[in-house]
Design goal:
Keywords: Signal. Residues 200-225 are annotated as: Disordered. The protein is mainly beta. It is built from two helices and 14 strands. The strands form two sheets. Strands 2, 3, 4, 5, 6, 7, 9 and 12 form an eight-stranded mixed β-sheet that branches. Strands 1-10-11-8-13-14 form a six-stranded antiparallel β-sheet, with no helix packed on it.
Length: 225
Amino acid sequence: MKKAAFALPALLALAACSAEPQPEAEPTPEASPTVSGVRALVASGFEELKLGPKIAGPQGSEVAGTIMFEGRLIAEITSFVACPELESNTELVTQCDPAAQAEGAVYTYAHRITPGEGAKGPILSFRTARRANGFANVIGFDRQQAEAALGEGYNIGVSVDNGALVWRIEAGDGWDAGEEITLFWQGELPPEGPEEVYEVETAEGRAAATGPFPPAEAPESPETE
């Protein structure tokens, strides 16, 4: 009986402790959700660039083409690739030889795009269809042309989407027929040749465009003995 008498207060004390509210465990911090592979960039102005001579490929120093969607002309595109600005004693050089460029040279890929009458609605975006190898994190457009085409308060967002480059019309009066805008980007690799690796997007869908583009795989550096 004495053991039971001593055990009862202990049980009552234990029950009282169990009845008290326990402090809540702090939640485990979780990483903020992000969009995989998409990175917004700050656009540069094409008019601020200092370009050297253009690279002459199989089609000359400029590659011109038409962009079709279901048999209709939705845009025209003219592209070129320029080497870095030359020194003052090389004014007579009119073409660029990538093989003669120093290591780390940056090439400017420029695309003059003019929407056509066959597009049902304005152009919404322009992009590369695959990763732009050697991209030097410089991308933009001609600001004067953009304002003339899209009006005051326009906005063209630029980004990298899993290695592909994207120019998207985010605000403005719409990129309509006859309104030329020059888009550009810079990379550390010269073009391999004109390829169907660009896309123009309208409300109807995407249409393929051809232009100069770097190789799908970066060339291996020569081994030094």
